[in-house]
């Protein structure tokens, strides 16, 4: 979508990335893992740092959700 927005606003150049939407449900997740392994895909350093930064908040939100269900 970002590349299309650039074109819309008159950018002279395309983006050089690829955006994918992947259904990561329980039945498709093994296929995704195999595909990423076959491509020798690696997590970007920025993504790893983001994940580590947000992990405590994500846990806290999940606990909040579980508490609300119990009520």
- Please tally the helical runs, counting DSSP H or I stretches of 4 or more residues: 3
Number of strands: 0
Using only C-alpha atoms, the radius of gyration works out to 18 Å
Distance between the amino and carboxyl termini: 41 Å
Overall SS class: mainly alpha
Question: What do these coordinates show?
Answer:
The protein is mainly α. It is 61% helix and 0% strand. The chain contains three helices and no strands. The chain has helices spanning 2-8, 29-38, 45-70.
Outline:
This protein is an all-alpha fold and 71 residues long. It is 61% helix and 0% strand.
Would you spell out the secondary-structure blueprint of this structure?
Blueprint: H1 2-8, H2 29-38, H3 45-70
Keywords for this entry:
0% strand, mainly alpha
């Amino acid at each position: 979508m970002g590349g299309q927005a650039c074109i819309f606003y008159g950018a002279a150049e395309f983006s050089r990335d690829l955006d994918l939407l992947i259904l990561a449900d329980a039945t498709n997740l093994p296929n995704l893992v195999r595909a990423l392994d076959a491509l020798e895909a690696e997590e970007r350093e920025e993504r790893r740092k983001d994940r580590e930064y947000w992990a405590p908040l994500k846990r806290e939100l999940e606990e909040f959700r579980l508490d609300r269900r119990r009520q």
